[in-house]
Amino acid sequence: MNTGQTTGFRLALGYLGHLLIAVVVVPAITAACFLSFASLVSQFSSGTWLIYTHAALTIPLFPLQAVSGIAVGVLLAPRSYGFRVARWVWILPAIWWTLLIVSWSSSSVLAESRFEHYLWSGSAEAKRAQIFSTLPFVTSIAYSCGSILAAAFRKEASTNQTSNLA
Asked: What is the pLDDT at residue 83?
């Protein structure tokens, strides 16, 4: 392999690594942290609310996972190989999400719209679909935004450091 092929292969591996972090690790970290916090709180309160704990992890558009994605993107993306490709990690989940939305059809004329099904619906079937489509899309966007923020912080810090030396 020549240098160009090696670099392309390494960038592809870097992209896949960031993609894996964005769509698998971020939701897993969010769930583990949230459920640990819930179990800690349950020791000091009545345990009946724990039945509904998982509902917070399936709020439409997954805000808890999005915040985690931004944090992981800021903290982890700059320290890993292929830092520049981390900002493009949302593309494959966006294609996947778009294909699922376009191919979805309702079984009833009175049923919800495609976007409602994949974004807002609370039905069990829709939640399953959202976990395998919308969640990876949202976490990958959040991770990309986090990596862009990290790049901006890094650029600002280097600018400040350079101006302090002058």
From this structure: 76
